[in-house]
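User: what does the whole thing look like in 3D?
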Amino acid sequence: MSLKQRLLYLQIESVSVRSPIIAMALHEPVPDSITQIEPTGIEFPYASVHEAVIDGWRVVSFPSPKESATTEDDLTILGYEFILEKLEQFDD
Amino acid sequence: MTSATPSSTTKEQILLNDEQMVDFIINGYTIVETDFGDEFNQGVFDQLEALPENPGDGILEAVPALGDVYSHPKVAGALASVLGPDYYMYQHRHCHRNMPGTPSQMWHLDGGAGTTERNPEHVRAVLAMYYPQDVESNMGPTALIPGTHLFPSSADRMASYGNFKNQIIATVKAGSVLIIHYDVWHAGTANTSDNVRYMIKFLFNRLSDTTKPSWDYDRDAAAALGEKITSASGAPVTRALAGIEKNRRIKMWNNLAGGTTFPSEYWDRWKGPWPAR
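Assistant: Here's the predicted 3D structure for the full assembly of 369 residues, as structure tokens:
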């Protein structure tokens, strides 16, 4: 067993941690694990970054102000991206 | 590249109506259900199974019955509605054989329509995907995110996205054709079944700008859709982009209609019940 980093990418509607989630990707520290598009319907475990933090996730990356897509020339994102981590014990 | 096949004019086309066009502008896709019977679809499936290798762009020559799919009155009518009456079949096409055990793709946009230009205010090209068998959710159905054709994005920026709250999983009946705006984010999902899933993708391009609506246009019917085109939820976007999204829908309509400005009528969107005490 060793302490490993789980990563949670959350894209949300605004820079507020209480803003609704648009998209989510969970990456587990497990060999050959894959993060797939779920074809049978999705149910996000959290409604916001704030809820994830309450559940023990730590924010390790906040969205850059440069991602503030407020002009028609800067439309490369669908949501402001927070990256969170949770350290947990995993089998080696 | 200019090599292309002109659109079929031998059969009467069944055009989209105003509401179907507004739905296409909002979501970037439409699903056409053809009336091909089991014998036709199974016949195509069997021919695909018998191919010794992927013929690439030669799939139409390898399976000529596919030409019947894309000249079907409902398919041709939908293509003419969104691309104009002189749309053409582009030379690139591809047969996707999704084998059991195949993982999902990442969200992406295709290349290869003869242009690298993305246009969030028009329809210059579409993908038309034919499925010769019923596609269940565990057979690797195509996934897409409605409304994303209004927001071009780079492939590397898409890499960190996973599941979206309103993603569409195209579980379809055999014989269906999924027509999507070329810039809609999409992906093949995992095939966890024991069945092969085929999807044959053809590209169709706009040849010229139209001077009038190329669909079954009715001014009064269109005018009644003002609230829908400006208020219906679409792409999962930031709050800052929501207003831009609505403006782009109207611009797309106007471009598709050849300058026939969307006949919007004023409505009082704030009228209604007070908040509950």
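In plain terms: The two ends of chain A are 6 Å apart (CA to CA). The longest strand of chain A covers residues 2-12.
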